[in-house]
Design brief:
Layout lengths: L16 H4 L20 H13 L9 H15 L14 H12 L5 E6 L3 H9 L3 E6 L1 E3 L2 E3 L2 H7 L4 E7 L11 H14 L2 E5 L21 H5 L1 E4 L37 E4 L3 E4 L5 H10 L2 E5 L5 E6 L5 E5 L2
The protein binds pyridoxal-5'-phosphate (PLP).
C-alpha cells in the first residue's frame, strides 16, 4: 500500500494543541509529538464504519485485542508476554501517575531521569510522592545514564525508577548492556522500574533495535511496569485509547485493573478478586485519569486502597 506523506492538512480549526500554541505563522510548531500526516485507511476505514453506525455506547475490550498485542510484541521483538499481564487504560500519562500512586507509599521516592517529558516530573507531585532527579549526561550528543550517580540516588525510601526508552527528549535508544546495568542496580537495591516505551516502534536507524526492559531477566520481568501504546506509532494522540502498564506478579502492592464491566469486579494480580463498590466502570476511568486513588499501609502489613471519584461516588477496595 502506498501512503500519502505529501498532502498538507490544515488542522487549526480542529482545536489542534500543536497548531494553536503559537499565533505567529512563521513558527513551525515542532514542540509536540504529533504528526501532520493523515492516518492510513487501515485505521480510518473501521473508524468511519463506527461513526456511520451512529451509536457510541459502552464497549468491552475485545477478547482478541490482547492476543493481537501479544502476537505483535512477539513478532517485533521476540518478547513473549502473557495475556494476563496486560491492563488497558486510557493513556501513558495516566499510567505514569498510576505507577507513582501504586508502587510508592506516601513518603517514598521515584528516581526520574532529567531532562524528561514533563508529565514524568508531574506524576510524583500529582500523587504526593517524592522525586529525585537523575541527570543524564551528554556523551557527544547522545544522552546517557550515569550509572554511578544513579546508584548514589538510591536510598531506603527510593522504591521506583522511571525509565524512558527511546528517551524523550534526546531520542537515545538504550542498548541491552545499558539496560542490564540499570536493572542490576535496581535489583541490588530492590527498586521497581517503570519503563515508558511508547516510542519503541519509531526507531528509524537500521543499526538500532528496541530492547524491552522487562524481557531482560526474571528480576526485570517481575519488578517492572512497561508502558506501551499506539498513539505515537500510528499518530493517534487525540484518542485516549490506551497505555499498557505491566504490573509484575510479585507480592509488592500491585494493581492490575481489569474491568469486568457488568459486575464491577476488579482483579488484582492473579490471586485477588476485589469487590468494587461503585456504581459504574466509567467512574473508574475517571479515577484513573483524575487520580483520586489512595493507598494506605497498615502496621500489620495489610494494605487498603480506597478511591473517590470527582462526583463523590464512593469506592472502597481492600487488599487481603
Ligand atoms: C515519553 C512519552 N510518554 C508518554 C507520552 C504521552 O502519552 P499519552 O498521550 O498516551 O498519555 C508522550 C507524548 O509525547 C511521551 O513522549
Amino acid at each position: 500500500m502506498k501512503y500519502d506523506f505529501d498532502t498538507i492538512v490544515e488542522r487549526k480549526h480542529t482545536h489542534s494543541t500543536k497548531w494553536l500554541k503559537f499565533s505567529d505563522p512563521n513558527i513551525i510548531p515542532m514542540w509536540i509529538a504529533d504528526m501532520d500526516f493523515a492516518c492510513p485507511k487501515e485505521i480510518t476505514d473501521p473508524m468511519h464504519e463506527r461513526v456511520d453506525q451512529g451509536i457510541f455506547g459502552y464497549t468491552d475490550t475485545p477478547d482478541e485485542l490482547t492476543q493481537i498485542l501479544k502476537d505483535r510484541i512477539k513478532l517485533r521483538s521476540g518478547w513473549d508476554i502473557e495475556e494476563d499481564w496486560v491492563v488497558w487504560i486510557p493513556g501513558a500519562v495516566v499510567a505514569l501517575n498510576l505507577a507513582c500512586r501504586t508502587a510508592l507509599a506516601p513518603g517514598e521516592i521515584v528516581v526520574t531521569p532529567s531532562p524528561i517529558y514533563a508529565p514524568f516530573d508531574d506524576a510524583s507531585e500529582n500523587m504526593s510522592r517524592g522525586m529525585v532527579k537523575n541527570f543524564l549526561v551528554d556523551n557527544k550528543g547522545r544522552m546517557e545514564l550515569d550509572f554511578e550517580a544513579t546508584e548514589e540516588l538510591l536510598s531506603k525510601d527510593t522504591k521506583m525508577l522511571f525509565f524512558c526508552n527511546p528517551h524523550n527528549p534526546g531520542g537515545t535508544v538504550f542498548n541491552e548492556e545499558e539496560i542490564q546495568q540499570l536493572v542490576d542496580i535496581c535489583d541490588k537495591h530492590n527498586v521497581i522500574i517503570c519503563s515508558d516505551e511508547i516510542h519503541c516502534d519509531l526507531i528509524l536507524q537500521d543499526e538500532l533495535k528496541h530492547f524491552h526492559l522487562a524481557s531482560l531477566n526474571d528480576y526485570a520481568e517481575q519488578n517492572s511496569i512497561t508502558i506501551l501504546g499506539p498513539c505515537k506509532t500510528f499518530n493517534l494522540a487525540g484518542f485516549p485509547l490506551f497505555g499498557i502498564p505491566y504490573f509484575p506478579h510479585s507480592d509488592f502492592i500491585i494493581i492490575i485493573f481489569l474491568f469486568v464491566s457488568s459486575n464491577h469486579l476488579i482483579q488484582l494480580s492473579n490471586s485477588f478478586k476485589i469487590l468494587f463498590l461503585s456504581t459504574s466502570t466509567s467512574s473508574l476511568s475517571r479515577i484513573l485519569s483524575t487520580h483520586f486513588l489512595t493507598i494506605d499501609k497498615y502496621p500489620d502489613n495489610q494494605t487498603a486502597i480506597s478511591a473517590r471519584s470527582s462526583d463523590q461516588e464512593f469506592l472502597f477496595i481492600i487488599l487481603f
